[in-house]
Design goal:
mainly beta, Ribosomal Protein L24e, Chain: T, 1 helix, elongated
C-alpha cells in the first residue's frame, strides 16, 4: 500500500539528514496518515487519510 493520502494525494517528501559534521544522508518525511472508515460514493471504505484532511473535514467519516 502506498503511503499516500486518499483525499489530497500527499505522499512522502525527501530531504537530507545532517550530522554534526554536516554530512548529508537521504531521508524521507512521511505524512501523518491514519487508516479510517470514510464514505466513498455512498459506501464505507477503509482508506489512508492524512490528519490535515481529517481535521479540515475534507472527508466524511463513516459510522
Amino acid at each position: 500500500m502506498a503511503k499516500v493520502c486518499f483525499s489530497c494525494n500527499k505522499g512522502p517528501a525527501f530531504g537530507n539528514s545532517r550530522s554534526h559534521s554536516m554530512v548529508a544522508t537521504r531521508r524521507r518525511f512521511n505524512p501523518n496518515l491514519q487508516k479510517v472508515r470514510i464514505v466513498v460514493e455512498g459506501a464505507p471504505r477503509r482508506e489512508y487519510v492524512c490528519t490535515r484532511c481529517l481535521k479540515a473535514d475534507k472527508v466524511q467519516k463513516a459510522l
